[in-house]
User: Fold these one by one.
Assistant:
Number 1:
Amino acid sequence: MILKTFIKRLVPRVLEDDISLLSPKTVVLRKAISHSGFKFGLLLFISIILLGILGPFFLDISPYQQDLDKRLLPPVWIEGGSWDHLLGTDGNGRDYLSRILSGTRISLTIGIGAALVGMVIGVTLGVIAGYFGGWIDQFVNYILTCQLALPGLLLAMTLVFLIGPSIPVVIIVIGCLHWTLFLVVTRSVTKRIAKLDFVSASNAIGATKLQIIIQDILPGIINQIIVIFTLEVGVAILAEASLSFLGVGIQPPTPSWGLLIAEGKEAIFFQPWLIVLPGIALFLLVVSINMLGDGLRDIMDPKSKLE
Amino acid sequence: MVVIAVALTLSFITFFLLNVAIDPAQAVAGEEAEALEIEQVRQQYGFDRPILIRYFEWFKAVLTGDLGISYYWNKPVGSLLLERAPETITLALMSVMVTIFIAIPLGICAAINPNSVIDRMCLGVAVSFQAIPNFWLGLVMIIIFSVTFPIFPVSGDKTYFHFILPSIVLGASSVPPVMRLMRTGLLDVMEADYIRTARSNGFFGWKLILNHAMRNALLPVVSVLAVQLGHKFGGSVITESVFSINGLGRLALESILGADIPTVQILVFVFAFTFLILNLLADILNAYLDPRLR
Amino acid sequence: MSYSLIINNLEISVKSLIGYKKIVSDFNLTLHPGRKLGIVGESGSGKTLSMLALNRLLPSQIEVTGGSIFFNNKNLNNMEKKEFYREFSGKKISMIFQEPMTALNPVYTIGKQLRQAFLIHNKGISKKLSEERARSMLDAVKLNRIEERMRQYPHQLSGGQRQRVLIALALINEPEILIADEPTTALDVTVQKEILELINELCLNFKMSLIFISHDLGVISKVSDEIIVMKDGKIIEEGLTKKILKSPKKDYTLGLLKCLWKLEKGNPSLYTDKEVPFIEVKNINKEYQLPNRLFSKRKKLSAVEDVSFSVFKGESVAIVGESGSGKTTIAKIINGLEYPDSGEILINNCPINKIDLFERARLIQPIFQDPYSTLNPNHTIGYVISRPLIIQKRFSSKEIYHNAIKMLKLVELPATFFYRFPNQLSGGQRQRVSIARALILEPQLLICDEPTSALDVTIQDQILDLLENLKKKLSITIIIISHDISVVKYLSKRILVIKDGKIVESGFTKEVLENPQSSYTKELLSSVFRIFPPKRNFIN
């Protein structure tokens, strides 16, 4: 009963003029519930996470356990496959399903970690540049141009290779090379907010610069930060996969999806599923994250209306 | 001016990073070299001197056209670049063509009929292309078009025909951002006051879009295309290694794996400089298109 | 040629999830050749939408859902889209809009835009002929240096010049009807007067009829023979302009007029304390650097030049000037939000930059123009009002709450607004909240920067009343900044007129208005369209 009234409260049945009586949070919530792309992305994302984190507990085969007698077994739906190895085995006879599932965790860890690193760098620089302006802004702009001009992937490859590949190194390197979007957006939004009258009003009531940044500016940019964060998680996951694919990211035998595809490349002519399957996993994860991000963008945009 | 300043900074940063992160003497001498041998190399090549002095020497040499000698290939870096550059330039230009011919028409179609079936399809294409890793798309294309249906060659760079699959793969990654920008740009412009003015003067349909909306909507697209073309050079690493094209990207990968510092240094610098020049060109083109920027 | 435009029971609705919601209904209008019709109403009254509907320019979610529009017995509502654009848009009916700054395409020259607009209805005409036509139109709207204008881009023209180009654009195909949608609202008063005169003259020369939309009865009275008064999507009253201005039949129209009459009467009850100089401004200067362009040198703009004046305790002083005159910069400098390049400001004989932030906050508080950006959308009204006290860190949370509630009452808002968010409030309510925020620290000086210019006339009236009452109740000093002389007259004892950053005239309001000395003040005063109350007084 309570649930029913709760759902009723959220269902979008309000008219244009009534929306003006809702609090900002309710509006966002109602938009979220009526946004199909967002809902689909969220559902997909949650199921991938559940599979990736809980899945390995239900499989009694370790992703590292080799069985040289059962090398390159095809998945169950191709002739010669068996139910013991649902998605077949790789060149060393390791269970492919188990390897793909445990790859989820690595992708997510690196994706979220790297996006966090990028967020800290980008948002800090962006807010500072946008709020203070002047030569600080020009200096940050200069750093931004430098960063944009650098060939990111190439530099990441070099750095990871030279420092020595490990998960923390990959996270930091990818994070340090993916903060430009955070910077550009937070800077422009901060600039816009800093010009508004309520910031002048805060100045006039004696608020300090730090108080203004935290209480007036950050609440205004948090929505955009969440959206970019989500999208950057997807970008970082792809970057990790590329590095691992080229052999300068996660090292074997850790089951990173990029690495699985690189290993499968040897068997491209005869066992294409070794390439196709981890690619699909990667695709689904990134698609779900991007749909979440796009949905969040629509939901949090004050200009978009309830449909 | 900014371009030169940024280029200088970048050359220094890459030089510094590469010379601090790794012991160059060790790299030249090889992994199994003994301590004594390494020390010898260090003195012979002058690696024992302070990094700033070495940077200035390197920079002076680069300015006079001496790009150094690759440890790994035992060749002057300059001739290596010249050898490999044409492949990458071909690939980058062809892939940008692919992007332009797919993304811009799709973006326009989506903007003309917002929320229609075409629009939703375009959005779907954008979302999924953004999620497809480049190297995987390359491999899947090989599986489909070279292995299952042998239409295109698997790899190599002998004829332009060899470049078709790689260009599509490399170009596909830029389709989503360019298409989205074209769509939102055109949608925004169509809401603008001056479009309303044009409508009230009797413009409608294609004439309205071509005469009044297109030029404004293209402004941001030009900048983004320049950025994307710049990324193509840096991003060619993956595509070139998947399709075994002997271009700059593959050279970069091989040099990195061979710890060949002089080559990597120059490559990073060349890619960055190309990017800066392309952006400058885009700025000039934008100033031509938009009188307010002049 | 004789024709007529008849609109019958027009109904416009906005599409939403559950169906349609009417926003304009029962809109009737008859227009004969050579007539000039004014439509007046506050924002949201549907005056613009009904004219956009006539021109088929409605935004995508809004549709015509009933009624008919006849032009010479041809029903425009049933007409094919293409036919309408080909036969009517720009050719029979033309429209000019409110925002001259954005209504021209920024990437094409004036000449090209005019030529294209001519070509669209006259296919196959030579370039020379169309250029000739464009030139003659620029001449008709009285722009000077026509050859140069033809080659210029919109951003190189001033607001008034752009509006002239837009009028040329609208008239280039000699339409029968010109619809002007608040064409002068975004312009300065002196420019507004010129544009209105131009429109009047062109209507005669081109034998057009005119539909003029405005929120300002003063403007409407200058350009129309008949008036339609609209409110909430309905026509409230219609009739001859003279009659309506003298003896309106409906209460709403009377209310609108009363606001104007009251401003015209001025305010007799302005009083002051003993004249102790409270704030002294001495020779302040301020320059701004204009942003860099790609191929041009950096320019400096002098916003305030050698301005000095003083304000006495309990006094109200007005600073009047057109946009770009530097009046807002002066306000920000007095408030300590900007620093002058030279000169100083003394408050109670103490330089303002020596006063610490908290102390300054208890002395001076600002009220801003735009009710939509003056409140942080992420904070509740309660937080917004109590934040000044929270930042001062000297009050218990109970004190703060009681004070905030007291303030809500003071500005005549219900206490339940405490938990609301700014987006749930109307413009007038927001402006009340910002007054409450400014007053909670009990400051001695209130700087009001165009406090009412973004509001509808009736709301404007209420806010001015509120400020007046507060001034009496709290004996507070007020500096009011405005472009609108009538607002100033109502609220201030002394007046400073500034132009291009310099004070051109100052003195007691009454004297300045009745006997202006500088030519600029005279020009300003003659540009204001006043509506005098009739002899028989409605106010009391």
Number 2:
Amino acid sequence: MNNSSISVRYAKALFSLANEKNVLNEVYSDLENLLTLTNTLPQFKVIVDSPVISSNDKQRFLKELLGKSVNDLTHNFLTLLLTNSRENYLPMIARNFIESYREKSGIKSVQLSSAIELDEKVVKQIGEVISKKYNAKVNVLCEVDSKLIGGFVMQVDDQLMDASVATRLKTLRQEFVKAK
Amino acid sequence: MAGINPAEVSEILKKQLEGFKYALEFEEVGTVLQVGDGIARVYGLSNVQSNEMVEFDSGIKGIVLNLEEDNVGVVLLGSSEKIKEGDRVKRTNRIASINVGEGLLGRVINTIGEPVDGKGPISGELFEMPLERKAPGVIYRQPVDIPLQTGIKAIDAMIPIGRGQRELIIGDRQTGKTAIAIDTIINQKEFYEKGEPVYCIYVAIGQKGSTVASIAKTLEENGAMAYTTIVMSTAADPAALQFYAPFAGAAIGEFFRDTGRAALIVYDDLSKQAVSYREVSLLLRRPPGREAYPGDVFYLHSRLLERAAYINITDDVAKQMNDVPASIKHLVKGGGSLTALPIIETQDGDVSAYIPTNVISITDGQIFLESHLFNSGIRPAINVGISVSRVGGKAQIKAMKKVAGTLKLDQAEYRELEAFSKFGSDLDAATKAVLGKGARNVEILKQGQFSPVRVEKQIAILYCGTKGLMSEVPLDRIKDFETEFISTLDSKHKEVLVSLSKGDINDTVTATLEAVAKEISARYNFQ
């Protein structure tokens, strides 16, 4: 019920403070790193979300893990989250922050998965097409996924274009099953 | 498959391939943040609409129920096991709906319209009808004035139901609530055979699979499946499928209603639906209210039951009806109706619990069933004193109105005196007469399961009851008298029954009825 309002408020506060202090870019990259950390390293999420570990221990853990690599504001923000016991909202807050940052700076993140490794030239071309279409800066992330068999899948924010052979085969199969 | 020609197969395949278009376009997607207990929270899908269907990677579908600032709450229409955190969720751009057509008759389907009776796919043309749809406005409605014959004497005489009405059936467990609904469906066979069918929809919510199977079998055996569709969501189905099942049934009913035909829908039962709605609401973290039901549980039932209606008989008016789905726009006709028989189960006769009071206030009357009546052999166990139909006599044929007019009052007087008579044995003749007549009426109103009585026969036997023509017949022989009386009329005085079925009751008819009754009752008196 109040899940989203909590994360939206924290993200808003962090965003406006970072904007005032002119450290938006730093905080953005910090939060992006933290988000990938939670997504890729399940143990990190387990420790942060755990109700058994005290907030002092969590703070020590974060300090050791992140050290001096994060901005002071990010550090203060994490401390605030821990003292307010809202640390399990971290991924949601990070997502909201990243979204507002991208909206402000006009960056579209493009995720491109393909069956085979793509030429840099091709990637650049795709980037140009997208940036022209949305009239925005584009940040292309490439990924190779052999399960696609062929073709590519491209995601721009929450818009997805699926031109993979695997999906085509799947739709074809569904079509025949339906007709039967 | 024996004589199939290979060339034919490739011809079909070729046709399908030709129709197969692969359009490449952007779709809107989101990511699963959290999943469990039949609920998924999804990030992204920023333009998704409330009540829209979404599809998960694994092919499982869901319906969007909560739109929050930065995530979307989705109820799953399948098992949550195959869905993982981080899975992709696609919009389908379709508001939750069900495909409806004549092919559904005789079938058992689930909430999303898939057949579950193993008889293959639904045949014939299908039209997409939304599960949630606004009820028709006042201009497109007509006052209820055609009776819906239930075939149950006590109901048709004293608590008449009209087409387009909502009549609640309420009572404890094991009081015969479902039996009344099933008898009513079976009684519509008469109209089906006449070529003016009342299409029936039986919605089973949260029941045992075996119960639904036996109901389907009963309907089949009584020849009622030909005009009936069963929508089932058993106790093993996800809560979302259970609370959407009545809406799916209503969508099917609306198809018949809006195409100018009569339909009857039974929701068995809405208390279980409220429970599954409560489950989903609590999991979505909506604030609980009384008995932990969410605040909009009244609206859940009122908007569902408001869809029962008798549509204006003028085609031109009906064609302008609000919120008609595009798929059936060209088929809309006036004069259709959807009658709803919601069922509510009470706990130990407590009608003042939250859900029973809500539904009582929404419906146009209620049929109360009581376990002590059931146990003392009065079946159907209807408590006539507190059962009402707010549409009333307008929904009765003339002859029935005339005959049954005093029945309810007579029975009320009988019950009052019966309580009194228990104190002493000295009763005057007038009291004795009232008691005797009342007791005989009670006997007449008893009726076996799966044996609905046609309205003309109901009128004939009730005439004997209200006029006191059976005062000479001993109480325990009333049933025999009834059988003999009806079969005599059937074999020797067909014209009387024909005239009664048209609603005409005149002096010649009553004279014949009285003569036959006198003749037969004399025989019983002698014994």
